[in-house]
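Sequence in, structure out.
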Amino acid sequence: MYLSFDIGGTNIKFGVVNEKGQILEKAKVPTPKEEVEFLSLLTKITDDFKARYSLDGIGISAPGVVSSDGVMTTFGALQSMYGLPLREKLSGLTQLPVVVENDANAAAIAEHWVGGAKDLQNYITAVIGTGIGGGIVLNGQVYHGGHGLAGELGWPLYHHVPKAGNIEVASETFHSATVLGLLQKYNQVLDTYGTHEPFTDPVLLIERVKAGDADATAVWNSFVSDLATNLLNLFAIFDPDAIIVGGGISENSYFMSALTNEWTTLIGRHQALNRVNQMGLLGTIRKAELGNDAGLLGAAFTIKEKLK
């Protein structure tokens, strides 16, 4: 049995996972923002489960850059814990082996274990949310890069880089293809009409698109085009068998249909990629299957493999 933690900036999800990838029990708690309270909570949860299960180890899915020795080089929104040697400290507190993996990589691993990538050896996951998390799997192994930075799909720049300001969130980067970027653009349009409550629900925006709202449709079409373009670039660079699209918005069938249709259109207009596509040599876009459980399952698989 494996104890899994899926750490987010708001909540920590945790659960017990067996050898077959079945979650036997799970729950969540608010995420402490300081190290002492954070480690104390993880230790208490571990002790509680130790009393009821025979645990072989602990797997952790965490946001940010994770070094090969389990140090949180960055830690998402938990900036006070940047540099935390999480694997070493939690293993010492619990007397169990611990493995720490980036959350997007954990999601990618989980999809191969019990999800939508079971038949694939080369694929990329793109988790669409406030940012874009990415996991790159090559020849059945997660590619971490030289410093654990590989798969940060939200970081690349493309064109028209602004002369000043934060270029990480410039409109011409992958940021424009995030849910946050989508909502920011729509709120900017609404601002031109005067004071309004911030629009925070992408599903309601989709409903406005389906109802024929011209402003919502224009912003939506730009979002889908930017995302499809960036996925096209990943196909050209990595030649994956598939890109697995996850995140809450991927559960919406209208979004997945719009993304797939736009990607197909763009491929048809790209002479080289269209040629190899016609030969059956181009991968496909798939929907992630594991939803909110991907982090827990990926963390469990990581410790499972480590203990081999």
